[in-house]
Amino acid sequence: MCDAAWGGDKEKIEKLVQAGQDVNQRGKGWGRTPLMYAASHGRTACLEYLIKNGAQLDLKDERGDAALHLAAQGGHLEVMKILVKAGQNVNQRDGWERTPLMDAARKGYADCVEYLLQNGAQLDLKDTDGRTALMRAAVLGHTDCVGYLIQKGAQLHLKDCEGKTALEQASEYGHSSIVKLLEAAADKGKYSIGQLSDRYQPEYNKSILFKHSEWENKLQISQIVM
Question: pTM of the predicted model, to two decimals?
Answer without folding.
Answer: 0.85
